[in-house]
Design goal:
There is one protein chain. The chain has one domain. The chain is built from 8 helices and 9 strands. The protein has a 5-stranded mixed β-sheet with strand order 1-9-6-2-5. The protein has a two-stranded parallel ribbon with strand order 3-4. It starts with 11 loop residues before the first helix and ends with a helix.
Length: 223
């Protein structure tokens, strides 16, 4: 099989370079972190925490999330070339990539996520990834929280200077030396249910909570 230029993006050499580049680039940011202690204390006292974010906002958190590597938390990542790149960075940050998404391998990945989540106590989830629709929370976050008896902690990233891409989620990238703020929301617990209407109500509730953190065009669309 002929080697394609795109294949370079998933080689160990490139992923190692990319991880180091992201670390160096993010080192220029001036970070502030709000409301982290509350959920860290809960986690260290034996609770389980599911950190949830919009796909739009995960990049600024990559450097900070290395601080949680001691828990080796699982993170569901799509079965795609882009997913392989993200997994390469996440794995080097001490996170445990689990391959699957709502469109490919979702059921198997969810089972694996639950297994690792119950053991680690901490997990991460991109609530509208990998392809959207933007600002629409999928069912996976609620299912994970139910199965692991976990609280959901939404988190949001912001920057005083950033580029917004013309992508499906208006992805944003802080500019060098930007002031970056990571804000953790209050812990949210949903009672496990087998009732479809109640489940949908919980999904909508989480979507309403997290919609206030959307940035750029998505924030304007929500108004």
């Amino acid at each position: 099989m002929a080697f394609k230029a795109k294949d370079i993006l998933t080689t160990e050499a490139f992923l190692s370079f990319l991880y180091r580049f992201i670390r160096a680039y993010s080192a220029t940011f001036r970070y502030s972190i709000e409301h982290e202690k509350e959920w860290i204390d809960y986690l260290n006292q034996g609770g389980r925490v599911l950190l949830c974010a919009w796909h739009q906002q995960f990049f600024p958190a990559i450097r900070v999330f290395r601080n949680y590597r001691e828990y080796h938390p699982p993170l569901m990542i799509s079965k795609s070339r882009d997913g392989a790149i993200i997994a390469g960075v996440a794995g080097r940050s001490g996170w445990n990539p689990v391959y699957g998404s709502s469109s490919r391998g979702g059921a198997e990945a969810l089972k694996e996520m639950i297994h690792h989540f119950r053991a680690s106590g901490l997990a991460g989830h991109v609530v509208d990834g990998p392809r959207g629709p933007a600002g629409k929370i999928k069912a996976g976050a609620i299912r994970l929280a139910h199965a692991a008896d976990a609280v959901i902690v939404p988190f949001y990233t912001d920057a005083d200077k950033a580029w917004y891409f013309n992508s499906w989620d208006n992805f944003f990238l802080p500019k060098p030396f930007a002031r970056v703020k990571i804000t953790y929301g209050e812990m949210v617990r949903f009672t496990p249910t087998t009732d479809p209407d109640e489940f949908e109500s919980q999904r909508i509730q989480l979507e309403e909570i997290m919609s206030h953190g959307l940035k750029g065009k998505l924030a304007i669309r929500r108004q």
